[in-house]
């Protein structure tokens, strides 16, 4: 078989197969060209999900006649000039493949002007159809029709109109987050679906995408070191989603999918959110272009950093600190100025430096009402229980309380009603005690006792031979955390374990560690410990329908307010919900 030189049209089709998978890729490439042309206003017109029409109109610098003709040639670009420029890319596009690739699989009309002269160039499926002067004002208008009609294999895999437009909408939204200084307008079938004003306010763009309820719960973050500068907004814990798609990572204002940054953001939220729940975040990582490589994938959605570990640690630290400073209590509605009554509990003599709270006034018993008696008489049973002994032992060491909340009553032996000057609180006593226990155990096991203890009955684990070989190769990693494996039958046997593991399900914990070793060649001991401690905290916590004295309830509330994170239990469920005084008055129609 002889080697032949492919003609230009076929080569462009091959390039298009790598870059243009669906209409959204066309929009991405053309809009990024508009951004590189310093456009401040970009209009995007779509019909039938992009299959009938894609039109991009911008007010950028435009092109003269020579550039308008030359931009259809492969690897013709104004953005890099030498191999050194490839290592310091500061534009969104740089390969010079987008326009010829799109023109090879569509009917492509380019109208452009640099303010002095204008040109119109028409290509159809890679062939020049027309080239003439144009009277367009400064800027560029690109119209793409008949997309994929000469590549039926690609056309066959195009999804529904709504599905294709959803991808376009999603990418335009992300571009607007990365460039809030540009006014974007998106129309589908002549109906406006998205619009930003381009005033540079990122929070306003977030409002356009997610709405007012999310914007009110966003926290501004700004931190960095001598190599990285990170800015953006992160959501409070009550605004979360079921997927990572709402963690938007930008690098030098370029929309990317960087797993390192996304995992770091998720890790910072791990102790606040339930499993499989993810935050809303828009984070821009600014870095010297020489330290990041964007030329790793045809779609330019992936990047590589020279110091990924340092970046990950910086993001975790910065976002963790931002969350710790914020008030993460679940709010019912917005707080508004309202008269704050003086509480009658202010005469309580409370010593905050003690583990328990001494209440001066005599405590009255709490009654449990059982109305389901055959004679329909109400049976009253005085309940005056202190905290269970096991729970008292697990109270955290003294920390200053975030705020003082006063207990008023208990509902169904499960929920504690409290108040302060700002309004009313409902506390789930099981979740609250679970959080208290969790932080106690977390502090206790932050420096685990690696003293070994002999197991009365050794633990055996069995795996397929292929996995046993990998485990044998990596068992030194397990040894570092106190798990010594010895070959035994079709697996391994463990005869000793560290002392700190005596209160957890060792078998499951060991299997989780081995699974990590098989998957990643490393052990995230912290996450495994947190999971084990969360389970232990739940078992040691108060159960529902447990009736407590006022003193016992006040102990729970005070110790909850001493926790580093009193807002959610270890599994991500809220511990405390706040009803503002204004909201209570509004419920009873006392205010309008």
Task: Describe this protein's structure.
This protein is α+β, with helices and mostly antiparallel strands and 592 residues long. It contains 17 helices and 27 strands. An eight-stranded mixed sheet has the order 5-4-3-6-2-1-7-8. Strands 9-10-15-12-13 form a five-stranded mixed sheet. α2 (23-36) runs parallel beside α6 and α13 packs across α14. It is globular. 34% of the residues are buried.
Q: How does the overall form come out from the CA principal axes?
A: globular
Q: Given the helix and strand composition, which structural class is it?
A: alpha+beta
Strand tally = 27
Radius of gyration: 31 Å
Major sheet: 8 strands, mixed
Low-confidence stretches: 335-397
Tally of individual helices: 17
Report, as a whole number of angstroms, the end-to-end distance.
Answer: 84 Å
Beta-strand portion reads 25-35%
Mean pLDDT: 78
Cross-sheet strand order for the largest sheet: 5-4-3-6-2-1-7-8
Roughly how much helix do the residues carry, as a percent range? 25-40%
Highlighted features:
592 residues, alpha+beta, eight-stranded mixed sheet, five-stranded mixed sheet, 27 strands
